[in-house]
């Protein structure tokens, strides 16, 4: 559950970063307003899904503290990716999000 929550949080933060004009230009992402709005909505949805997945996994006060740490780790990963390899955010974002969604669905079915 922690791994899938980390993947969802990473994808959500990467989408939120790509919704900003500066980071979208760095990664070679389209700068259109509808595309940036879709990234923003998808990013917040992925973060909410990450929180829901973590809270569903156990005791909710402890799960919220764990989720806060997960988001911090995901933020560090996204920041390092955008700093050192900005085009990697574009090429790895879709597979990361698909993998996170599949893991979340598998764990929800268990």
Molecular structure report:
This protein is mainly alpha-helical. It has helices at 2-18, 21-27, 33-56, 60-84, 86-109. It has one domain (2-109). Helix 1 runs antiparallel to helix 5 and helix 3 packs antiparallel against helix 4.
Per-chain topology:
Blueprint: H1 2-18, H2 21-27, H3 33-56, H4 60-84, H5 86-109
Secondary-structure element string: HHHHH
Helix proportion: over 70%
Instruction: Tell me the strand percentage band.
Output: under 5%
How many separate helices?
5
Q: Can you tell me the overall shape?
A: elongated
Global structural class:
mainly alpha
Number of domains: 1
The average pLDDT score comes to 81
Keywords, separated by commas or semicolons:
110 residues; mainly alpha; 5 helices; elongated
Overview in brief:
88% of the residues lie in helices and 0% in strands. With 110 residues, the protein is mainly α.
